[in-house]
């Protein structure tokens, strides 16, 4: 007689395709010959969490890499995604449910908007799934799964296994991800990270993290992105991790590069910055948000006001770590002068890359509730996240805000201005990690450089093409050892240029 366990089940793991989103950096991904920014670590984590004794067979689709197979023979579809994937999640779900195949749905969208997500799923997962996914699979195989699995507990990270990357090819992605920690102790009004990962900061052991970095390297990763909201929360842990990464990377003939997200607190700690440079961190996505203490305080981010953004940016830069600065405009305390100050700051600190977003209030954040109570949530929001807002601004009319935002963004990425900042940034680097000095030629990185070269040669805008060659020529003349960093910066430009010059984004926000 057949038992439930003896029937082999097939689960189709699906990551929906990204809509054109600022953060997917499509042009820069294309410029280096990759196909997507990063693989999906939620699905790889679910794979790793699956009890082997259930004998479940998996199929996999990252729609950013390959097409979805709508006729896939499977017993369950497991879907993940952020809120911006919701329309595609609805389509995929409908496609399979029409064929009588049930859908399990989890991730940021499901967790933050359960009422919207529930009609799209037969099995809805709220929160982290380290405990619920294995339990669900056992119950599903036994035929008694429930429609809702809510993991209220934020797990001890040592229980979160290394993602199982078996379905992923390194060369398809620009970065690989490793998540060393979860939880954010801050209470910034506009962020919903706390609802997802809680306020208690939890981390994996240093040995676990280094093992995950090694796994990523074995999959072909050349740059590993630490996918936590803030890399620098617990100094002792970050320091210990960095010391181990320096040791691990130094032993490699072709060391790996790293990047991460952090707030301005990181640059106040020069020992940490030097260790990052020694470990080969090349880029930090730096959430500065605003230069005004009033604006920071307005969104409950006043704790950052005692740090000097200029010191952080210049410290990272001196150590050769490129700060990709995140600013937000649209605070109640912003004025027309704010836009001038931001531009001046970026010129004076010679920061080549900055992204300026418009303040938004995601649903279920304290900011949303406050704006709602004050009747300041726009009734109709047809805009594009990042380039418009669901908040009715008070500092200036919406049209003005968007216009100033557009003008600033465009002006920052005028090729000659970008060139000036880039060359000045390269001039200001005073420290070179031994890992940069001693690394052997990395042919795969050379190939990426060839891709970038081809990309720029074919760029339709002459001023962009000439800027590229001028930066390379001047860098070569000044010091050929700076070329690698120059190429890293130049590889980002296509993304920011195409976004800042594509009027569609702004028109849609009006
Ligand atoms: C890495 C990351 C990215 C990467 C994505 C890489 C990738 N390929 O997935 C990049 C840098 C590209 C990115 C971009 C963006 N991101 Co992002 N990102 C993150 C970050 C820092 C970590 C996510 C992660 O990898 N976690 C590791 C995995 C293991 O955890 P997980 O995804 O939560 O999965 C767990 C559970 O949710 C659950 N689960 C997940 N899926 C499923 C599915 C099933 C079936 C089941 C059972 C369980 C389950 O199980 C997992 C294990 O516990 C989060 C912040 C955070 N703290 O989560 C923000 C976050 C997810 N991003 C966010 C946003 C807003 C964006 C952008 C829209 C930003 C923008 N303004 O453009 C873009 C959109 C990009 C796009 N895809 O189009 C928001 C999402 C909010 C929302 N409402 O959806 C977050 C929460 C940040 C925040 N503080 O607001 N992001």
Summarize the structure.
The chain has 510 residues and is of the alpha/beta class.
Low-confidence stretches: none
Number of helices: 21
Strand content of the residues, in percent?
Answer: 5-15%
> What gap, in angstroms, lies between the N and C termini?
65 Å
As a percent range, the share of helical residues equals: 40-55%
Instruction: Give average pLDDT, whole number.
Output: 91
CATH superfamily of the largest domain: tm_1862 like domain
Strand order of the largest sheet: 2-1-3-4-5-6
What class, by secondary structure content? alpha/beta
CATH architecture of the largest domain: Alpha-Beta Horseshoe
- What's the CATH C level of the largest domain? Alpha Beta
Write the layout of secondary structure elements.
Blueprint: E1 10-15, H1 26-31, H2 41-49, E2 57-62, E3 76-79, H3 86-98, E4 103-105, H4 108-112, H5 114-117, E5 123-126, H6 132-141, E6 148-150, E7 176-178, E8 181-182, H7 193-197, E9 202-203, H8 206-218, E10 223-226, H9 235-250, E11 257-263, H10 270-279, E12 281-289, H11 293-298, H12 309-318, E13 322-329, H13 336-348, E14 354-358, H14 366-373, H15 398-412, H16 415-428, H17 434-438, H18 443-457, H19 462-478, H20 483-501, H21 504-509
Parallel strand pairs: 1-2, 1-3, 3-4, 4-5, 5-6, 7-10, 10-11, 11-12, 12-13, 13-14
Antiparallel strand pairs: 8-9
Helix pairs in contact: 8-9, 9-10, 13-15, 16-19, 16-20, 19-20
């Amino acid at each position: 007689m057949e038992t439930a366990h003896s029937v082999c089940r097939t689960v189709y793991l699906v990551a929906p395709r990204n809509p054109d989103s600022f953060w997917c950096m499509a042009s820069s991904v294309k410029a280096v010959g990759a196909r997507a920014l990063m693989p999906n670590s939620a699905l790889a984590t679910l794979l790793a969490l699956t009890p082997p004794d259930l004998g479940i067979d998996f199929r996999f689709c990252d729609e950013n890499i390959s097409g979805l197979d709508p006729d896939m023979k499977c017993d369950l579809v497991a879907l993940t995604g952020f809120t911006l994937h919701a329309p595609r999640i609805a389509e995929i779900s409908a496609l399979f449910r029409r064929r009588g195949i049930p859908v399990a749905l989890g991730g940021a969208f499901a967790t933050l908007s359960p009422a919207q997500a529930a009609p799209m799923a037969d099995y809805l997962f709220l929160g982290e799934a380290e405990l619920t996914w294995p339990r669900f699979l056992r119950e599903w195989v036994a035929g008694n799964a429930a429609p809702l699995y809510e993991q209220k507990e934020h797990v001890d990270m040592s229980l979160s296994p290394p993602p199982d990357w078996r379905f992923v090819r390194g060369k398809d992605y620009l970065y690989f991800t490793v998540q060393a920690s979860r939880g954010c102790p801050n209470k910034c009004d506009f962020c919903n990270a706390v609802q997802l990962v809680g306020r208690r900061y939890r981390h994996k052991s240093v040995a676990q993290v280094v093992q995950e970095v090694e796994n990523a390297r074995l999959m072909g990763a050349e740059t590993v992105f630490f996918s936590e909201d803030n890399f620098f929360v617990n100094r002792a842990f970050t320091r210990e991790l960095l010391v181990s990464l320096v040791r691990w990377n130094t032993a490699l003939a072709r060391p790996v590069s790293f990047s991460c997200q952090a707030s301005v607190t990181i640059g106040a700690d020069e020992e940490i910055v030097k260790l990052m440079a020694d470990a080969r961190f090349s880029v930090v996505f730096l959430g500065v948000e605003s230069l005004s203490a009033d604006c920071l305080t307005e969104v409950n981010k006043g704790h950052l006001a005692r740090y000097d953004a200029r010191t952080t940016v210049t410290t990272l830069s001196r150590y050769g770590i490129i700060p990709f600065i995140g600013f937000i405009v649209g605070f109640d305390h912003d004025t027309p002068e704010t836009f001038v100050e931001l531009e001046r700051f970026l010129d004076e600190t010679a920061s080549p890359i900055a992204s300026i977003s418009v303040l938004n209030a995601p649903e279920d954040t304290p900011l949303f509730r406050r704006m709602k109570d004050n009747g300041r949530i726009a009734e109709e929001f047809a805009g594009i996240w990042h380039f418009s807002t669901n908040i009715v601004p008070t500092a200036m009319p919406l049209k003005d805000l968007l216009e100033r935002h557009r003008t600033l963004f465009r002006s920052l990425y005028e090729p000659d201005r970008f060139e000036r900042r880039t060359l000045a940034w390269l001039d200001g680097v005073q420290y070179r990690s031994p890992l940069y000095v001693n690394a052997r030629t990395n042919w795969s990185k050379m190939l990426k450089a060839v891709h970038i070269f081809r990309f720029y040669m074919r760029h339709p805008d002459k001023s962009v093409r000439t800027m590229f060659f001028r930066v390379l020529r001047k860098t070569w003349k000044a010091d050929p050892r700076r070329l690698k960093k120059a190429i890293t910066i130049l590889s980002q430009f296509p993304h920011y240029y195409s976004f800042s010059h594509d009027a569609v984004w702004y028109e849609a926000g009006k």
